Target: Probable membrane transporter protein
Amino acid sequence: MRALILLGLVGFAAQLVDGSLGMAYGVTSTTLLLAVGTNAAAASATVHLAEIGTTLASGISHWRFGNVDWKVVAKIGIPGAVGAFAGATFLSSLSTEVAAPVMSIILLSLGAYILVRFTAFGLPRGNLGKPLRRRFLAPLGLVAGFVDATGGGGWGPVGTPAILASGRLAPRKVIGSVDASEFLVAIAASIGFFFGIGSENIDFAWVAVLLLGGVIAAPIAAWLVRHIPPRILGSAVGGVIILTNVRTLLRSDWIDASGGVQTVAYLVIAAIWAAAIAYSVREYRRDKANESVEALELELQRKATEEEETASA
Model:
């Protein structure tokens, strides 16, 4: 019972992060399932089954708050579904001994990308309003869908930063559109896993509690996306993913590191993680201060113009 409650809380927290940041539900949930000994294919299948419900709830919530561009959803979601089905069948064909470290490497890479991307660069906002073309979104969806299924997460970490980097869509619409399109990816990946491993290796009680936690969090996250600092959240989530998957790799048969080596690795990662969060907080405050100064300057210019117009009249 305690494990189910913990999974429900993880589902809630993961969806809260995913709905606010546009990524990390699958990465966070799969990382935990691997940490408690679930085999790679079953972990990814469990998460994707839960995501059918959470992404539907998240997509509806984002749509109600005006955060979804349906043209983007169609252009990236359909290729994403194809990639997810291929990734699920590929992962299902790997042995457990090979699949677990491979998935941890993918998750570790995604965690590092999230940490560096949001700590160093924040959210780009140039080129807003320019169209996102199918020749960019279709290959992106195909790759993101494949990575998502094989890594137990990756749709958001691959898709969201790439679209944000284009600067052609407002950040809240990028997050809402990526979350809404993930519904198609979750369905396709789940079908692929049913073909690959069947249903006997999936704990449907775990699916249910992950789903329940995520559904509760979805509307809250859709509201928070307008208020929470993505830069700080991205740094925090990236560090969690890195630390957890480094632990999995160091304890795997591939490396089998000693206790001393593991301790040193954890301390180094924790120090880098803390520095990244501190840097993100500082940069966020600096950006807010600059925005306040710019707003004040514009207001002063407006008042000066009004005074000149009054004086000339």
Q: What stands out?
A: The two ends are 77 Å apart (CA to CA). The chain has one domain: 2-312. The chain has eleven helices and no strands. The CA atoms of residues 127 and 166 lie 7 Å apart.
